[in-house]
Amino acid sequence: MTRDEIIRELHQFFQVRELVCGHTFSRWGERSWQFLDTAYLHNLLVIRRDILQSPMVCNHDEAEQRGLRCNRCQIVRDKSENYLSAHVLGKAGDFTVKGLTAQEARSRIRNNADRLPYPLRMEGGVNWLHIDTLPQFGITAKVYEFQG
């Protein structure tokens, strides 16, 4: 699939304002898609549409800064050291999945790793579904679970 096709398909499930911080959306609007990594978006589409087949929520009224984080986001500004997470690189999102616990969602994704177009990292031991496409030096597993 091309990047444009991926974004068109994702429109069925997400608005870009859900996947980026409010600062980014306020400045760039619908053009905010440009800051999100293609591999991340393609994996997100396959996870939502084909693997979990259930609504997923990233940013919402009670929880922001769960997708792309810019330099103005408080969670970034509070860091005292260099902060180059997958979130600031447009390669990550933290999601709540309707009808599934985070652990159940991670398990389904692991069991369907062959369906993912790109390698995927997931954060284990948390009550949300963190997914990202940040490459890991020396890690060859299709799905890699790390502890934050």
List the helices and strands and how they pair.
Layout: H1 3-10, H2 16-19, H3 22-28, H4 38-52, E1 56-57, H5 74-77, E2 92-97, H6 102-111, E3 120-124, E4 129-132, E5 143-147
Describe the structure.
The chain has 148 residues and is an alpha+beta fold. The chain is built from six helices and five strands, in the order ααααβαβαβββ. A five-stranded mixed sheet has the order 1-2-4-3-5, covered by helices on one side. Strand 3 (120-124) and strand 4 form a beta hairpin. Helix 1 crosses helix 4. The longest helix is centred in the N-terminal third of the chain and has 15 residues, at 38-52. The model has no long low-confidence stretch (mean pLDDT 94).
As laid out across the biggest beta sheet, the strand order is: 1-2-4-3-5
Helix/strand order: HHHHEHEHEEE
Given helix and strand content, the structural type is alpha+beta
Task: Please give the alpha-carbon distance between the first and last residues.
Answer: 32 Å
Instruction: List low-confidence stretches.
Output: none
Whole-number radius of gyration?
14 Å
Strand content: 5-15%
Share of helical residues: 25-40%
Count helical runs.
6
User: Largest sheet, described in full?
Assistant: 5 strands, mixed
State the shape. Answer: globular
How much is the average pLDDT? 94
Per DSSP E runs of 2 or more residues, the count of β-strands stands at: 5
